[in-house]
Amino acid sequence: MYAAERHQLLAQRARRDGRVDVNDVAGELGVAPETIRRDLGVLERQGVVRRVYGGAVAVERLDFEPEVAQRDQTNAAEKEAIARAALDLVPDRGSILLDAGTTTSRLATLLPTDHELTVITNSIPVASILATRPGITLHILGGRVRGTTLAAVEAWTLHALDGLLVDVAFLGANGFSAEHGCTTPDMAESAVKAAVVAAARKRVLLADHSKYGTDQLSRFARLAEIDVLVTDSGIDAGAVAELEEAGPEVVLA
To answer: In the chain, what are the helix, strand and coil shares in percent, each to the nearest 5?
Structure first.
């Protein structure tokens, strides 16, 4: 078995069972435990698992969210491709709302300067990217800032969103599936994302393939509420068909 095949098997096992035991998997595959430890090290750097004594635990099963810097390095090439594909959905003029997230931040860096855009965001990283960008009128939503995601949340943010109607909202998610929709682990952030969905004429979800099926604590939208899902080609054809049947157009970057 090639290393890439072992990585895929270990990732699937971690997501299915919640954890991976080094000795059990080494015996099953007929390789040295050190080989499995190295494989789990690769998966940890990709943000898929967190190593613990004797094995590893799936990140989504832990009671924490990776911080922005760590999440930005996970599937970085896929996120860049998704952001570039999402550019086709940015209007030549009008208003867009950029949700907090590493992929939406990448989209912010790519926004053209020859469009007349009003950009609204609850993300400090997005605001810092766009604050001096020509051709963009920037509005940042206030509220309590979550240190993990650098996103404004709670009453101030929700109150501001309640009075908005934007042309296109670009959202991030920690998980998505046809059955459970779009999810995130923090309920305060989920409430803001739900308000973003309600405040937009068109809703676009930006999420790489690793988030498919990794359902989190709090749902902020069903897939029927999402107009377009932009993901990467790492997702399989069966999943694409299932997702499109649930509502959104699926664009593969």
So the answer is: 45, 25, 30
Q: pLDDT at position 63, please?
A: 47
CA distances from 113 to 54, 74, 79, 167, 226 (A): 51, 28, 21, 18, 27
| Res. 180: pLDDT tops 70 | yes
- φ/ψ region of 209 (left if φ > 0, alpha if ψ in -120 to 50, else beta) reads alpha
Look at residue 63 and tell me if it is in a domain. no
Q: Is 80 exceeded by the pLDDT of residue 199?
A: yes
Q: Are 248 and 223 in contact (CB under 8 A)?
A: yes
User: Which of 58, 82, 105 is a domain's end point?
Assistant: 58
Q: Does the reported pTM lie above 0.85?
A: no
Q: Is residue 231 part of a domain?
A: yes
Residue type, 134: P
Nearest to 168 by CA among 208, 199, 143, 210: 199
Map 78-123 to HEC letters: HHHHHHHHHHHHCCCEEEEEECCCHHHHHHHHHCCCCCEEEEEECE
At 67 the pLDDT is 54
The tokens describing 63, both together, are 């009671």
- In whole angstroms, how far apart are CA 10 and each of 37, 219, 248? 11, 27, 30
Boundaries of domain holding 18: 3-58
Task: Return the percentage of the chain with pLDDT > 70, whole number.
Answer: 94
